[in-house]
Amino acid sequence: MAFIEERLPTTIDWGGSFAEAHSVQVVPTSNGNEYRSLKHPFVRLSYDISYKRDIDFVRDRILDLYSRANGMYRGFRVKDVKDYTTNNYNQAPTAFDQPLIKSATGVYQLVRWYGDSDDPTCARRLIRKPVAGTTLFSVAGVAHPSSQWSVDTTTGLITCAANKVRNITAISIAASAVVTVGAHTFVTGNSVAFSGVVGMTEINGLRALVTAFTGTTITVDIDSTAFTPYVSNGTVQTQPIDGEDIAGGCEFDIPCRFDSDLGGAFSDWGTIAASGIRIIELLNP
After folding, report:
1. 176, pLDDT greater than 70
2. Is residue 25 located within the same domain as residue 56?
3. φ and ψ at 284, to 5 degrees?
4. Higher pLDDT, 19 or 262
5. Residue 55 vs residues 59, 60, 62, 268: alpha-carbon distances, Å
6. What is the pLDDT of residue 91?
7. Residues 195 and 134 in one domain
8. Average pLDDT in the 16-33 region?
């Protein structure tokens, strides 16, 4: 169903309340024990908020959004003022904040983990609505060149640029290794990774920037002077290889919908109080 890509106004009156729900089922037994099961690890936010503003503001910003959302039908963005970045709730995001989930080859989902991401029961939030212009992305512990990826701010998916991949036929022993790959499309500034090399196995798994190129070679920022001589085989490519750490960060909104009918009162001349507006997070916006 359609989603309204705009943010609920953050000028909320004091006195609003919030809840963070976890999908836990608790079954007590006759001997006083209990059994707990986690249905899913996703956190779910809900708010009970109020606005008291001039008639035009409430009508044009709140009532109008409610009407366009068909009440509880369509979702919209909400900034959770206590938790809106991937870096310690409200700090400026970095490219290394959170491990990402692989969605497909070269495609990764932004995530906010609340604990150890290696724990399958770790509480988490899939970031479906990153704020435009705030996303950062890293591969193998290094910020990835912006020309080699893009983010969809309506889904939170990061997609790497089309993979540039070539078979290796030679690697020099030098302060900046020269790699022979035949005709290619690599350019200066591309980030590339190595795998499957025989002989100079020390280069396998390394990633570096292309610093220069010719029609059949690329020079990379890797000092191979202490490496074993190259023998055969190997691949160099731009997209991540198996085993590389993939991480990212951003500011984010939370996709929500209205969870109650909207009511209010004419509190003063020219003013409307819209109170008890309940909104709830959409886990599948």
Report:
1. yes
2. yes
3. -135, 65
4. 19
5. 6, 8, 10, 10
6. 97
7. no
8. 89
The answer to whether the beta carbons of residues 181 and 194 sit under 8 Å apart is no
Number of domains in the chain: 3
pLDDT computed for residue 51 by the predictor: 76
Looking at the structure, do residues 152 and 105 belong to the same domain, yes or no? yes
- 230-to-172, 179, 186, 191, 225 alpha-carbon distances in Å: 8, 10, 21, 21, 12
The single residue listed with the structure tokens 């000092």 is 223
Pair 8, 77 in one domain = yes
Domain containing 53 — which CATH number?
A: 2.40.30
Residue bearing the bigger pLDDT, 126 or 277: 126
79 shares a domain with 7: yes
Query: What does the pLDDT look like over 241-274, one tens digit per residue?
Result: 999 999 999 999 999 999 988 777 676 777 777 7
Residue 91, domain member (yes or no): no
Q: Is residue 90 part of a domain?
A: no
Q: Is 210 part of a structural domain of the chain? A: yes
To 10 degrees, the CA torsion angle through 208, 210, 214, 218?
Answer: 10
Q: Which residues contact 28 (CB under 8 A, 6 or more apart)?
A: 34
Residue 89 belongs to a domain: no
How sure is the predictor about 13, in pLDDT bands with cuts at 50, 70 and 90?
A: low
Total number of residues shown for the chain: 285
Its domain, for residue 126, covers: 98-162+245-249
128 and 179 together in one domain: no
Please say whether the beta carbons of 55 and 270 come within 8 A: yes
Going edge to edge, which strands form the sheet with 246-249? 98-99, 246-249, 136-139, 142-143
Span 35-86, pLDDT tens digits: 999 999 999 999 888 777 677 777 788 888 989 999 999 999 999 989 999 9
Element (H, E) at 167: strand 165-167
CATH, residue 228: 2.40.30.180
Beta bridge partners of 152: 157
